[in-house]
Amino acid sequence: MIFDGIMVYAITNELNNKIINAKVEKVTMPNNLELNIYLYKDKKYILKIDCSPDLNRIHLSKYKKSSPLIPPTFCMILRKHLEHSIITKIEQYLLDRIILITFENINELNDKESKTLVIELMGKHSNCILINENKKIIDSLKHITPSTSSVRIVLPNQDYHYPITKNSFINTSKDTFINDITSYEDTNISLGNYLISKYNGFSKMFLNTVLPDYNLSINNINAEDIYTILFTAFIHIKNNEFSYNTNIKYLNFNEQNNMNSLNEIIDEEYEKNINTNIIKNKKSNLSKIVLNNIKKLTKKLNISIEKLKECENIEKYKMYGELITANIYNYKNKESEITVQNYYDNNNNITIPLDKSLTLNINAQKFFKKYSKLKTAYDIEIKNKEIYENEISYLESILYSIDSIDDLEELSNIQIELEKGKYIKTLKKEKKSNISFTDNLLKYTFANFNIIVGKNNIQNDYITHKLANSNDIWLHAQKIPGSHVIIQNPDNSIISDNIIEYAGSLAAFYSKAKNNNKVNIDFCNIKYVKKHPSNKPGMVIYTNFNTIYVSPINS
After folding, report:
1. Are 132 and 115 in contact (CB under 8 A)?
2. pTM of the complete model
3. Which H or E run contains 102?
4. Which residues touch 347 (CB under 8 Å, ≥6 apart)?
5. DSSP sequence for 259-283
6. Number of domains in the chain
7. Which structural domain, as residue segments, surrounds residue 428?
8. Do 202 and 57 belong together in one domain?
9. Coil, strand or helix: which one is 136?
10. What is the tens place of the pLDDT at every residue in 72-90?
């Protein structure tokens, strides 16, 4: 959504119609860049002001947000000066992205006094500044010191100065507008670029909406017609005669108003974007954690594989020791090598290297010790290799779940699963969601049979080991991460091939191979599915299974 000066003009116009004379009940700051002012007039309102770089905006909202136990200093100052006051004026400064909200209150001497909250919505330079009647700064959300800017200082007790700005179209007379355009010397500049450089509030989106020919050269337009078109657009906004185009996320002046409130639309749009960004960031963070753990485990797995390669010839050291012992009286001590008959290989001759500084007996013991050491290492690395492979497989299944989920609560459940597995530290400050086993399970019906699909390892574990009954059929994509699928069969009915194929297609769709044309799906009776020895959620071993080759579907 483009939050330009025109959008601010429309919002300001609507706020004037809704919250003038509203009383301030409470001021909160959910975070260091967001301000919520709770109001009451004919009903309760929440005025949301966000000064974050990417989402800076002002509008009424229906979404309450929790606040920290210890509010920021600026929040405390606003509470002191604004709570119980009345909003008496809301205005936009020169059609720029600057809104001034005036609050009136009764001081301790029973005199009226007013304070103004200046909201500057300017990307990364967005700010919220409280000033008194003499335009002295009481405090601001962001302090701008001389070391930060040599142009403009924003500090308590300093005079407030507006940012350097351009002209306001609505404060420009028709004759002045026409004269400005017709007398402009650079005739190669486009109309759009000229208007954006000359006047506040005009964005390419706005000009493209009201002036389809805004890319024309400035010397190819009728200045009077352009003024009329632009002025008419502002009349439409003032009279609430516009609609909202959901495709371009902007105002449409070619249609009559088809909405109850621009504030409501902005509220929903940004809430959706915020949730999308939160989900995107959470998915990214969880994926990064899982991938880092997979990387570490893969490194350990490769070390185990290398150690196992070193152990490939361990039997020869045992054989060397036994052959030396069998021939210990046939050779002199302190030889560099001996050649003996190898009774393990049809008595063919074999040459055994020796340490000639040691006796034959000690050389034999040295080979036996090396065999024993490598045998112990081999047994350890075989177990380690299996552990690492199972853990990598488990984490790959979590990675698949993260990639396929777009729900914040389910992502939180995956986070809890990772915390329980000690892959990440428990985040004490973050409010955790409760893992729900029965809510949000995917459920399908085919030929009067209910089919249940798990969406993550916790749900997979639940439907396979707790929900499923002895007559149910279990399905899973072969050797790849995916959902567990259960065909429920409480009456022990005959399950046709069509039902198994349909459930198998669901198992294919809810797997890492969902984009393949065909996928191998294993299925068996639930009694042949057991928890994996690693006891990781969703990890199983199964026997007595059959395999079908199906196309993925999700309905």
Report:
1. yes
2. 0.67
3. strand 98-106
4. 341
5. -S-HHHHHHHHHHHHHHHHHHHHHH
6. 4
7. 284-435
8. no
9. strand
10. 999 999 999 999 999 999 9
